[in-house]
Amino acid sequence: MAEEYREALLKKKYHDNCPGCKVDQMKELQQGIPIRQLFSIWIVVLCTALPISSLFPFLYFMVRDFHIAKRDEDIGSYAGYVGSAFMLGRALTSVIWGIVADRYGRKPVIIMGTIAVVIFNTLFGLSVNFWMAVITRFLLGSLNGLLGPIKAYAVEIFRDEHQALGLSTVSTSWGIGLIIGPALGGFLAQPAEKYPNIFSKDSLFGRFPYFLPCLVISLFALAVTIATCWLPETLHKHNEKDISCDDSYESLEAASHESRTKEIIEEDEERESTSKQSLLKNWPLMSSIIVYCVFSLHDMAYTEIFSLWAVSPKKYGGLSYSTNDVGEVLAITGFSLLVFQLTLYPYVERILGPVMVSRIASVLSMPLLQSYSCMAMLSGFTLSLVLNCASIMKNLLSVSIITGLFILQNQAVDQHQRGAANGLAMTAMSLFKAAGPAGGGALFSWAEKRQDASFLPGTQMVFFILNMVEAVGFLMTFEPFLARKRQ
Q1: 406/288 Cα distance (integer angstroms)
Q2: pTM for the predicted model, two decimal places
């Protein structure tokens, strides 16, 4: 009789009408690496990442064609407003979308985000004046709140041993989107000028020279929107007390059913009351978000500075690259990111842990980044080889840091708070990323004016300051600042 009672306790209870329970049942039967789920997450994140940076190669010319700037020197300022509108919109709504994802499910927010890309990215490409461009970018950021929920989804759709792979897929797809986006924008903008045999000046793409890259991304987003209709929902939709009882079965396995059951119930009640506390009082979560923001500021400033440095003249310490040359470097880097995150990162994370991976990656990034200023002395094939290797290494290290912090954030909260927690992280990160391009551009302009300085002249100062930000992030990965949730 006692044995039957014990087996009943050990048997996990599933609810027929709960989508989260159906996913849990699917995970129990899952064998091998879940390629289909990885691919689904990859294309959804790529869909939201592509429009963020695809405008940077042609934004200067787009603002110039609006004739809003009185002088050429003012074009950069107006371009900055258009570029930051997306991040500002996302900062204002990320927490709201996270709460919606926790209440109604991850899937509705994901579908809404991809639909926003289809509509507002298309309208941005058809912008006829400066304010239309700003408003469409702002609305795109405001209504595309899927990055936080998709990270929660990546944790919930996989078994424990594959969660690091799921989150590394998010960060890899994000990184690739931010790299491939500018390549698309550079190759497809102004098609009537670049490819006159295919596109005439009287055609739609001649009258709207920046519409083609936006249209290509929007069509991809439309296909992703249709595909996401078949995504399984991972949010549990039944009584929370049932969840606590369900989750206790593993603990019951190692104890006698009578004395241990009472302990389990008390522990679950304590855990439930703790999980209901304010996210702002959850220091393991907040500390990982703050560290995440510091590294995000560094990464966004680096992205801005890398393009400016590569295309600037050699007399200012740059490489005199064309936009096509930069696009080739970024494309090679994007492919390398994909290979690394899907093959090596999960194993490295399993051996060292997410915190140690982030520390090692940040330490290795600093000497690598400082060496960039010496590359201007190279030329030809040697420059191309060294720059590609350095760009690949820098981006692999940056994505490793961000992925480790993704894991810490999702481990710091229970499932019913994961959407809101990732939304909070997106809000804070968006504010820092909005400051990154503006700060990076201003820093680069200031550094180019001090070519004859005795201490760290020219671009040496740029990369030194970037390293200072990286060093601050590295120091913040240690206790007592960065706390881990007790399992």
Answers
A1: 8
A2: 0.69
